[in-house]
Amino acid sequence: MSNFHYLLEIAGPNCSEFQQVMALVDTGATFTQMPATLLRHLGVQPTETVRFRLGDGSTIQRPIGETQVRIEGQRVNTVVVFGDDNADALLGVYTLERALLAVDPAGQRLIPTDALLV
Fold it and tell me: Is the four-CA dihedral 59, 60, 63, 67 of positive or negative sign?
């Protein structure tokens, strides 16, 4: 499995300003994470605090909020984590699934997929 980065755009709640962000595609992350300073600059407000389990098994708490991203030409609502300002931006599974995108790790790209209703 390979890791790769993807250029997406994120906006504040009024969607008047989109900012480009290079994010690591992380299928192990539930939500998309952005630096807290960027989210506050865009006007995104925390709505609640959530507990997260890290790769080493430890847990942390981080605020989350809701905003919009543009990804593969479409604009979708998503949940974002207010990450540390020095942490990598992560493109998480919730955003990928909301945009109906799957990960092609060999081709290091995102590909359209169908929604599932089983």
Answer: negative
